[in-house]
């Protein structure tokens, strides 16, 4: 017979793993955007993302105490990814755009100050 002890905690760990993979996706996308998004760079970052996602999957399986791959684990990962895409992704994009806007403003101010200082010296 099937033992159902621990299946809920394993499913919840898989949901957290799916959320983590979504966070990794946004981090790699932001890194690619910050570094310029060249085709070769994008390919390398995609490869690194999939390796990291596989690592999260394996680590989740190892730490959750599962004895093998089960359908509910795949469902948990898919649920976590869907939750991230439906809710957390927007929040992360909002935070990233706020940070980018703040950095742009700071750079503009620093550039204006440098130009002003150079103009006063000359």
The tally of beta strands, per DSSP, is 0
Strand content: under 5%
The coarse silhouette is elongated
Which percent bin holds the helix content? over 70%
* Largest sheet, strands/sense/barrel: none
How do the helices and strands follow one another from N- to C-terminus? HHH
Q: Report mean pLDDT, rounded to a whole number.
A: 85
Write up this protein.
The chain is an all-alpha fold. It has one domain (7-121). It is 86% helix and 0% strand. The chain has three helices and no strands. The chain has helices at 7-34, 39-64, 71-121. Helix 1 (7-34) runs antiparallel to helix 2 (39-64). It is elongated. The mean pLDDT is 85.
Q: Which secondary structure elements does this structure contain, and how are they paired or packed?
A:
Elements: H1 7-34, H2 39-64, H3 71-121
Helix pairs in contact: 1-2, 1-3
How is this structure best summarized?
By secondary structure, the protein is mainly alpha-helical.
């Amino acid at each position: 017979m099937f033992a159902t002890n621990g299946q809920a905690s394993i499913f919840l760990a898989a949901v957290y793993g799916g959320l983590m993979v979504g966070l990794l996706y946004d981090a790699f996308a932001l890194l690619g955007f910050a570094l310029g998004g060249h085709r070769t760079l994008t390919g390398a970052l995609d490869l690194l993302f999939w390796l990291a996602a596989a690592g999260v999957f394996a680590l989740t399986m190892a730490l959750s105490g599962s004895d093998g791959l089960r359908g509910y684990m795949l469902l948990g990962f898919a649920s976590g990814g869907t939750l991230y895409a439906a809710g957390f992704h927007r929040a992360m994009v909002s935070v990233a755009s706020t940070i980018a806007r703040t950095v742009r403003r700071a750079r503009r101010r620093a550039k204006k100050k440098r130009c002003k200082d150079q103009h006063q010296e000359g």
